[in-house]
Design a protein that fits this description.
114 residues; mainly beta
């Protein structure tokens, strides 16, 4: 059974940093493009960043220069380093393949507040 387990969220002050991790029990992880998504209260789930199997990355415009996605194929893990966070980054963060599988993890809550 496919499992996605996100961790690393928490409360952080504006301008601070936070690192998220996601372990994906996907047999084809190494060949999958992975992504981080986020969903703020009352809003739809949006794609934040992606990383291909070869390590090529892409970011939503508002995250460029602040977020860094990476992966460790040996550990079936994808990471999201969040720097210079803003209150509008407050959301539940999820990882999934692209296109996303129907089963999502529980996500990890990130709250940016002073």
């Amino acid at each position: 059974q496919v499992q996605l387990v996100e961790s690393g969220g928490g409360l952080v002050q504006p301008g601070g940093s936070l690192g998220l991790s996601c372990i994906a029990s996907i047999s084809i992880f190494r060949t999958s493009t992975m992504g981080w998504y986020r969903q703020a209260p009352g809003k739809q789930r949006d794609l934040v960043a992606t990383i291909t199997s070869a390590g090529r990355t892409n970011y939503a415009d508002s995250m460029k220069g602040r977020f860094t996605i990476s992966r460790d194929n040996a550990k079936n893990t994808v990471y999201l380093q969040m720097d210079n966070v803003k209150p509008e980054d407050t959301a539940v963060y999820y990882c999934n393949r692209l296109p996303p599988m129907p089963n999502w993890g529980q996500g990890t809550q990130v709250t940016v507040s002073s």
